[in-house]
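Deliverable D2.4 — example input (C-alpha cells):
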C-alpha cells in the first residue's frame, strides 16, 4: 500500500476529533464510488443492476475524484456494478492513485481474465474480489494465488446469506492458507430484493469465532458486529456515490439525492442545514438494515477507533 503524506493522516484525525466533540459524524472517512451501474450479473441480494443511472464521462469522473481527495475522506473504493466494464478504467485508476487517498477496487471478478490486471494493479492498494454463492464464482477460491500476482493486496469480499453461514469457514480457511484477507458482510435487505439477511446475533458469534481461529484474516471490524445488534448502529461517516456523481445523503436507506460531487465542494455541503437535517433523520431510522458501509464505519467516530479500523489494512 502506498504511503500517504503525514499531513493527510493528521487532518483525518483532526476531522475525527471534530466529529467526536460535536457528537455528530459530520465528516466521512470512507467513500465508495460506483463508476458504473452496469454489471454482467443480477445477484438476488443486490439492486444496483436494477437502476438505470448513467455513467459520467472520464473528465467528470476526475472532478468527482478531485472533490473526494480534497475532503475528509481517506479511503476510496472504486466499485460498480462492475467497474471492469469501463474501457477507460486504467486512466481513472491512474488518476485516483495520484491522490492522497487509500485506493480500494471492488469487482465480481468475472472480467479479470479479459483485462490487463497487472497494469491496473499498479494503481490499486487493495483489490477486493467478491466471491460467494450469489456472485456465482466459488471456483475463484482456487485462484487466489494467481490473483495475488496482480500486485495489490487481495481482500476477498464475502456476502453471507442466512443459508450460507454454515459454509463460511471453508471460505475463510482457503483465504487464510494463501495469506490474503477477507471482509465478511451480511446480505442486507435492499429495496426491491428478497430478504436473505442472516440472524445478526448468530452472524456476530460466527465471525468472532473465525477471527480467533484464523488470525489476521478477517478485516470485518468488531464495531460492525456490535452495531448490527443494536438500535441506531449506523452513521454518516461513510458515503456511497452513484455513477452520475449523485449522493443519497446520509445513506441509501433513508436519504435523498441532495448533492452531486461534480458540483461544488463536498466539504461545504456537509456544513449546510440540509446536510445536518439529513443526519438527524438517520438517527431516527428504525430499519437497522445492516448495510456494511454505514454500520462498519461508525467506528470512525473517534481518532482512536479510526486508527483501530484502519489498522488491518495498514499493519500486516
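Example output (designed residues):
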Amino acid at each position: 500500500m502506498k504511503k500517504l503524506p503525514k499531513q493527510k493522516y493528521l487532518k483525518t484525525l483532526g476531522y475525527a476529533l471534530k466529529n467526536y466533540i460535536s457528537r455528530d459524524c459530520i465528516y466521512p472517512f470512507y467513500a465508495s464510488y460506483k463508476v458504473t451501474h452496469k454489471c454482467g450479473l443480477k445477484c438476488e441480494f443486490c439492486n444496483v443492476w436494477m437502476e438505470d443511472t448513467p455513467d459520467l464521462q472520464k473528465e467528470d469522473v476526475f472532478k468527482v475524484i478531485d472533490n473526494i481527495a480534497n475532503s475528509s475522506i481517506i479511503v476510496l473504493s472504486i466499485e460498480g456494478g462492475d467497474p471492469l466494464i469501463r474501457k477507460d478504467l486504467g486512466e481513472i485508476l491512474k488518476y485516483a492513485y495520484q491522490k492522497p487517498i487509500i485506493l480500494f477496487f471492488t469487482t465480481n471478478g468475472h472480467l479479470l481474465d479479459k483485462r490487463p490486471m497487472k497494469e491496473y494493479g499498479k494503481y490499486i492498494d487493495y483489490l477486493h474480489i467478491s466471491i460467494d454463492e450469489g456472485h456465482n464464482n466459488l471456483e475463484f477460491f482456487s485462484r487466489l494465488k494467481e490473483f495475488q500476482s496482480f500486485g495489490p493486496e487481495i481482500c476477498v469480499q464475502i456476502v453471507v446469506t442466512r443459508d450460507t453461514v454454515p459454509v463460511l469457514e471453508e471460505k475463510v480457511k482457503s483465504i487464510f492458507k494463501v495469506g490474503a484477507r477477507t471482509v465478511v458482510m451480511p446480505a442486507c435487505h435492499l429495496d426491491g430484493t428478497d430478504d436473505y439477511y442472516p440472524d445478526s446475533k448468530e452472524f456476530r458469534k460466527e465471525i468472532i469465532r473465525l477471527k480467533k481461529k484464523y488470525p489476521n484474516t478477517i478485516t470485518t471490524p468488531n464495531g460492525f458486529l456490535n452495531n448490527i445488534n443494536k438500535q441506531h448502529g449506523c452513521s454518516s461517516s461513510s458515503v456511497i456515490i452513484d455513477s452520475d456523481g449523485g449522493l443519497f445523503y446520509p445513506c441509501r436507506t433513508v436519504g435523498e439525492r441532495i448533492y452531486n460531487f461534480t458540483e461544488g465542494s463536498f466539504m461545504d455541503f456537509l456544513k449546510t442545514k440540509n446536510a445536518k437535517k439529513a443526519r438527524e433523520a438517520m438517527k431516527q431510522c428504525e430499519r437497522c438494515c445492516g448495510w456494511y458501509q454505514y454500520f462498519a464505519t461508525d467506528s470512525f467516530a473517534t481518532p482512536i477507533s479510526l486508527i483501530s479500523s484502519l489498522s488491518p489494512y495498514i499493519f500486516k
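The radius of gyration is 18 Å.
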